[in-house]
Amino acid sequence: MNILLLSMPDSFEHMPAVAVRMPNGALTSLAGNVDPHHRVAVADLILVQRRSRETVTRLMRVFDPEVVGLSVMTFQRRTAVRIVELVRSLKPKVRVVVGGYDPSLAPDAYAPTGVDYIVRGEGELTFRELLRALEQGGSFDRICGLSYRNGDQWVHNPDRPIHRLEDGEVKLPNRRARVLNGYTLLGRQVDVIETSRGCTYDCSFCSIIEMRGRNFHTYSFDRVIADIRDARDHGARTIFLVDDNITLNVHRFEALCHAIIDAGLNKLDYFVQGMTSAIANHGETLAPLMRQAGFRYVFLGIENILEGDLEFLRAAAKNAARDNGHNAGNATLKAIEYLHRNQMYVVGGLIVGNPDDTRESIEANLAFARRYVDWPYIQHPTPYPRTPMTQAFRDQGLIMNERFEEYDGTTAVVRTKHVSAEEIEYLRWKSERWMKIRHMPAAFRHDPWFILSHGPQMLAHTFRGSTLRSVLGLESEKKTFGRYKAIREVEREYA
After folding, report:
1. Beta partners for 2?
2. How would you label 317-349 residue by residue, b for 16+ Cβ within 10 Å and e otherwise?
3. Checking DSSP bridges between strand 375-379 and strand 238-241, what pairing results, if any?
4. Is the model's pTM score more than 0.90?
């Protein structure tokens, strides 16, 4: 069969397409795990953000798929429904499958759409079995992890057990299936690699544990190294390790760094997500090893610098420093110090706008980010389907907005007990845009041609809404913020 797999064009505010166009690793993993006689095309629509409809139309006509699959996050739901409508108009009898966090956690939201099947949770084995059933005319009732339309009713099969990964059944991604190109991170071709899945913590904002439970499973290093080589051979010069929590097992992460070095793959740039506690408690040896292995950027899950907010976010434990087995306070500053000492840049992940936040507590986190992080990744708590945070906000009547296309992390859709949603977003926006330009000299030293050629576009994106009058201080920043919000609203119309 011909199979077309699509990721949505909607992007996060912190990942503008002018600077960051990351591939969807789930789709190439699906492509690598179907039976080999199928013909699969993977199209990441982030590469054609403003030409999504034209691109899908062209691919449908050229590729003539029997099955179209879409990977969807919550803020992409509206766009996904529009893409499904387009696909149906072009080929009414095509089978449409959706998967990803949003369909997995909110399958009922897709019942009234033109979707035929929902792949819940990990998709490789479920999707493979679905294709076999479609091809052979078999039944779907024994395919774990699958929801399917049966007449006017939906059938939800039992969940698929979490895959342990070690047995080699999940094969390498198929990057040859990509039919679009242009994946970049600050001008360098980028790809994504997965070395493990899962996390054992229970952060209240996390969709991962709601989708797969609290567990941690790993691939063999042989497979990981083969995957990195394959990404490099397809042109990647930057690798983003997308593991849910790679620093959960620090000794394994250290061994991975050694494996990268021993394989001669440490000339690539690596971007990783990490816990402050792991880096603070092991940074004396871990941080130099990470730098030797080629790590350049570390997304640090700081979450918040105030203990009360960390308790609400259920993130206190993963941000605790240890001294002889005892809690020695917040680990953030120590982790940042180790990373900076070893010439790595900190992408600071913080969450502001929690139920008890005041203007002063929000400003305290913003001031911390201004002082210590190299690139801000500051978000607002967002009530994604079935997360504990969602129930907490709903119980307190703090959810102000149920337009899911605005659930992108940087649009404040909840208020606190003391601050309105709009004021929370304004405080972040006003402070954060100036933080972003501080990193441009470092980016210029690493990729001068990209910054010279794209710097004006990046600045225009960061400061959109600004005018000469606002730059000269002749009008209030609230007016500029209003224009920014209007621009952001238009930008969400991807399809």
Report:
1. 39
2. ebbbbeeeeeeeebbbbbbbebbeebebbbbbb
3. unpaired
4. yes
Q: What residues contact residue 147 under an 8 Å CB cut-off, 6+ apart?
A: 107, 117, 118, 120, 154, 155, 156, 157
Task: Encode pLDDT of 294-303 as tens digits.
Answer: 999 999 999 9
For residue 162, what are its two tokens? 């979490």
CB-based contacts of 481: which residues, under 8 Å, 6+ apart? 426, 429, 430, 465
Three-state DSSP at 268 gives coil
The confidence score (pLDDT) of residue 355 equals 95
In the three-class reduction of DSSP (H, G, I as helix; E, B as strand; rest coil), residue 348 is classed as strand
Q: Give first-to-last CA distance, the chain, whole Å.
A: 27
Backbone φ and ψ for 96, nearest 5 degrees, come out as: -115, 130
CA distance linking residue 449 with residue 198, whole number of Å: 38
C-alpha to C-alpha distance for 13 and 11, rounded to whole angstroms: 7
**Residue 408, CB half-sphere, CA atoms under 13 Å: how many?**
19
Q: Which pLDDT band, with edges at 50, 70 and 90, does 201 fall under? A: very high
- Whether 68 and 88 have beta carbons less than 8 Å apart is answered as no
pLDDT digits (tens, 9 = 90+) for 330-388: 889 999 999 999 999 999 999 999 999 999 999 999 999 999 999 999 999 999 999 99
Residue pair 370/431 in contact (Cβ under 8 Å)? The answer is yes
Tokens linked to 416? 């606190």
